[in-house]
Amino acid sequence: MELPVDLSGIVGILDEEVRNFTHDGYGYALAPGKGTIGSRWDFLVKYFDHNDHEILPSSLGRIELQKLDKDLVQFRVPPRMEQETPEMIEDDPDGLFFGSFVYQTLNAFQRHKLIDLPGVLPTA
User: Fold this and answer.
1) Out of 35, 43, 69, 72, which could bridge 30 as a Cys pair, Cβ 3.0 to 4.6 Å?
2) Least trusted range by pLDDT, from 1-10, 90-99, 113-122
3) 29, β-bridge pairs
């Protein structure tokens, strides 16, 4: 989807919002993946253990941000089948956690008035 914001703006929103996302007792963290400064960023979505305050090594999925114009960014969630991380398998339990992350991200975009949804998406 295309978002009416610059690349640093969307990275800032994600940095602010993702730390508040939770699902089934865990949080989420974004780890930088491949990227080109100023035009493209890939982030690995990882578990964050609130008890240990530690980011767990396995990845749930990936998101991509691509600058299209000065104030326009494409946000993409590649299908899990396309994910490059070997521990990810289609139909695994991590899919529920990743799905919750995606819905919470879309709800955050709506709160920041970047998209218009018919309502709040369920995240549990």
Assistant:
1) 43
2) 90-99
3) 46
